Amino acid sequence: MQSIYQYVWLVPLLPCLSAIILGFGLLSFNNSIRNERLFSFYLSTGFLTIAMLLSFFIFGEQVSSSLAHRQLWTWIQVGSVSLDIGYFIDPLSSIMLILVTSVGVLVMIYTRGYMSHDQSYVRFYAYLSLFTSSMLGLVLSPNLVQIYFFWELVGMCSYLLIGFWFSRPNAAYACQKAFVTNRIGDFGLLLGILGFYWLTNSLDFDIIGERTHEILINNSIDNNFIILFCFLLLSGPIAKSAQFPLHVWLPDAMEGPTPISALIHAATMVAAGVFLIARLLCVFQEIPLVMDVIAWIGCITALLGATIALAQKDLKKGLAYSTMSQLGYMILALGLGSYQAGLFHLITHAYSKALLFLGSGSVIHGVEPIVGYDPNKNQNMVYMGGLRAYMPITGSTFLIGTLSLCGIPPFACFWSKDEILADAWEKFPLLGWIAWITAGLTAFYMFRMYFLTFEGDFRGSLVKQNEAKTTKQISANNALVSINKLIQKDSSEKVTNKYPHESSTSMLLPLILLTIPTSLIGLLGAPLFSTEPERSLLSHWFYLDNQNLTTLVSTNWFDYLISTVPSVTIGLIGASLAWLLYGPQVERLKKTDFYLDPVNEGWGNFLLEIIYKWSLRRAYIDDIYDKTFVWFTRILAQKISLIDEWAIDGIVNASGLLSLLGGESTRYVETGRTPAYIFIITFVLVLLLLLSVVVSISLFHF
């Protein structure tokens, strides 16, 4: 029987072929291919489904053998310099293949219903296929050169997908912001790759780790160089995984279609940074300072994302900050050396957050016929509420995703988050306490989103009330015309669009299927199939070959159960507090003129105002960047523009003007008469002769 490993190259190739076919069709037969919606759906989904099945076979082979497989081909050979391309299969890459392909297939099925009325339906599937192929190529990369190539390709696809609705100014701005922010990290990553090639004369992960270890032991090179190159390598994952301080692009990226939010900004692209840190952990672990910086960046990001999400009104942006916070947990775990816990949370969070994002898309799809198609309305939780009665499947699946993300047992994220908290408390107590508080904030803002969206009374009618208030401020004649239009529009919508509606089958099926891994995949890392609580299915094959970085926390079942109490307790406290402030029994939310968040008097109101402004102003970080980097860059660009216009262009223009004037002045000398030319030549020669005589006499007397 032939090994399944020889067909690994088909996994990224199949979605790439789909993107090429659709892209070629759009370029060559635009009018014809744009009408072939069903063809684009079956082509993209079918090819990716085959890739997913191959990924499951590869995963099964990896679990049974536990042997890494590497296949390389020489790409460039110049003297002693050799660049190879190929693929590398180990436990990390095999499970990432399943993660990317499975979520990708469900997103493509979901897209058929969500984007059914979009004119660029086929183009969207082409972008999806290209992105999926790029991400699969990234996780299979055996060296830093190949991973950087696919890293940039993933960034390009993210730019195209975030700005898919480029006619919207906000979407155009968001894709540019994401592109520029990621370019900062990618430039540092490139410098780090070149630096480590200079140090180790290799681009393979294992060789770089071994030679870095030898350099540190022999002290052959100043350690500051290694630290610098590590930080440069780290800048790439910080930007790609939206870690502080390069996190500012992620919330704005929600301007893209919701399926993109589920695929790119929950399960795949933002996870690429975590994946790269895990790949390079054999290098980072040699420098304790670098590991501490990674841990602190992850912890700060987790807390920052959770605090900003506390009072968000936009449903998708609230989930975006939640993603940022959970990515911080993963980075924190890797910085603490908890390799298994960090990657375990990567898996559980991907399915849970994909479920939540697709659920938010179902909500938007259900309420937009009533509140309007403006994202400021159909994504605003002010105009939601009570949707569980109209969208029971969406509400139930969203609740499952919320329970998982809050760390409530037995859902998936409970097992991974609890392991991260336990490791943090043991290895770095201060970070453990911060992570524990963040877990409580996570439960609070997630249940706040759930209660405001699905519980209580439906508040979609407030849109028309706000529009009516606006029309009263218009002039009398214009107001009368506007009110008549609103009355006619209301009378036509009351028949069919009075209440929200449940989404189509193609959108509900992925939600139902995603509840399975959201509920059960945590059992892979749960100590349920072993007599020892510290052993799990993942612990047998999720480890580093050169050093087992995971420190076992408990040695018996009683200690293990006791260690889970703090994480569950803080989650329940956060959820209970959210129920008290935003639950269906709250009278504040039942009033016509209401405040979405609670208000108070005295010191309580002062503290609430600080929290609201901190959240709605994004911790003032965007404002700081605008007042410093953006403002400085624009001023510098204006000054350089003036220098270019008046100095550089001035010299060129002056030279041209002198040539013009010189030509214009000398053309009158050209009379066409030979005696005149002889006279001018003789006159000039006499002048030159007299000038030379005068100079000679002056030099002689001197």
From TrEMBL:
<feature type="transmembrane region" description="Helical">
    <location>
        <begin position="508"/>
        <end position="529"/>
    </location>
</feature>
<dbReference type="GO" id="GO:0048038">
    <property type="term" value="F:quinone binding"/>
</dbReference>
<feature type="transmembrane region" description="Helical">
    <location>
        <begin position="432"/>
        <end position="451"/>
    </location>
</feature>
<keyword id="KW-1278">Translocase</keyword>
<dbReference type="GO" id="GO:0008137">
    <property type="term" value="F:NADH dehydrogenase (ubiquinone) activity"/>
</dbReference>
<feature type="transmembrane region" description="Helical">
    <location>
        <begin position="147"/>
        <end position="166"/>
    </location>
</feature>
<feature type="transmembrane region" description="Helical">
    <location>
        <begin position="327"/>
        <end position="348"/>
    </location>
</feature>
<dbReference type="Pfam" id="PF00361">
    <property type="entry name" value="Proton_antipo_M"/>
</dbReference>
<feature type="transmembrane region" description="Helical">
    <location>
        <begin position="393"/>
        <end position="412"/>
    </location>
</feature>
<keyword id="KW-0618">Plastoquinone</keyword>
<comment type="function">
    <text>NDH shuttles electrons from NAD(P)H:plastoquinone, via FMN and iron-sulfur (Fe-S) centers, to quinones in the photosynthetic chain and possibly in a chloroplast respiratory chain. The immediate electron acceptor for the enzyme in this species is believed to be plastoquinone. Couples the redox reaction to proton translocation, and thus conserves the redox energy in a proton gradient.</text>
</comment>
<feature type="transmembrane region" description="Helical">
    <location>
        <begin position="39"/>
        <end position="60"/>
    </location>
</feature>
<feature type="transmembrane region" description="Helical">
    <location>
        <begin position="95"/>
        <end position="112"/>
    </location>
</feature>
<feature type="domain" description="NADH-Ubiquinone oxidoreductase (complex I) chain 5 N-terminal">
    <location>
        <begin position="75"/>
        <end position="125"/>
    </location>
</feature>
<feature type="transmembrane region" description="Helical">
    <location>
        <begin position="178"/>
        <end position="200"/>
    </location>
</feature>
<dbReference type="InterPro" id="IPR003945">
    <property type="entry name" value="NU5C-like"/>
</dbReference>
<keyword id="KW-0812">Transmembrane</keyword>
<keyword id="KW-0150">Chloroplast</keyword>
<keyword id="KW-0521">NADP</keyword>
<dbReference type="InterPro" id="IPR002128">
    <property type="entry name" value="NADH_UbQ_OxRdtase_chlpt_su5_C"/>
</dbReference>
<dbReference type="GO" id="GO:0009535">
    <property type="term" value="C:chloroplast thylakoid membrane"/>
</dbReference>
<dbReference type="Pfam" id="PF00662">
    <property type="entry name" value="Proton_antipo_N"/>
</dbReference>
<feature type="domain" description="NADH:quinone oxidoreductase/Mrp antiporter transmembrane">
    <location>
        <begin position="141"/>
        <end position="441"/>
    </location>
</feature>
<keyword id="KW-0813">Transport</keyword>
<feature type="transmembrane region" description="Helical">
    <location>
        <begin position="676"/>
        <end position="700"/>
    </location>
</feature>
<dbReference type="InterPro" id="IPR018393">
    <property type="entry name" value="NADHpl_OxRdtase_5_subgr"/>
</dbReference>
<feature type="transmembrane region" description="Helical">
    <location>
        <begin position="7"/>
        <end position="27"/>
    </location>
</feature>
<feature type="transmembrane region" description="Helical">
    <location>
        <begin position="293"/>
        <end position="311"/>
    </location>
</feature>
<keyword id="KW-0874">Quinone</keyword>
<feature type="transmembrane region" description="Helical">
    <location>
        <begin position="124"/>
        <end position="141"/>
    </location>
</feature>
<dbReference type="Pfam" id="PF01010">
    <property type="entry name" value="Proton_antipo_C"/>
</dbReference>
<dbReference type="GO" id="GO:0042773">
    <property type="term" value="P:ATP synthesis coupled electron transport"/>
</dbReference>
<comment type="similarity">
    <text>Belongs to the complex I subunit 5 family.</text>
</comment>
<feature type="transmembrane region" description="Helical">
    <location>
        <begin position="560"/>
        <end position="582"/>
    </location>
</feature>
<feature type="transmembrane region" description="Helical">
    <location>
        <begin position="260"/>
        <end position="281"/>
    </location>
</feature>
<dbReference type="InterPro" id="IPR001750">
    <property type="entry name" value="ND/Mrp_TM"/>
</dbReference>
<keyword id="KW-0472">Membrane</keyword>
<dbReference type="GO" id="GO:0003954">
    <property type="term" value="F:NADH dehydrogenase activity"/>
</dbReference>
<feature type="domain" description="NADH:ubiquinone/plastoquinone oxidoreductase chloroplast chain 5 C-terminal">
    <location>
        <begin position="469"/>
        <end position="644"/>
    </location>
</feature>
<comment type="subunit">
    <text>NDH is composed of at least 16 different subunits, 5 of which are encoded in the nucleus.</text>
</comment>
<keyword id="KW-0520">NAD</keyword>
<keyword id="KW-1133">Transmembrane helix</keyword>
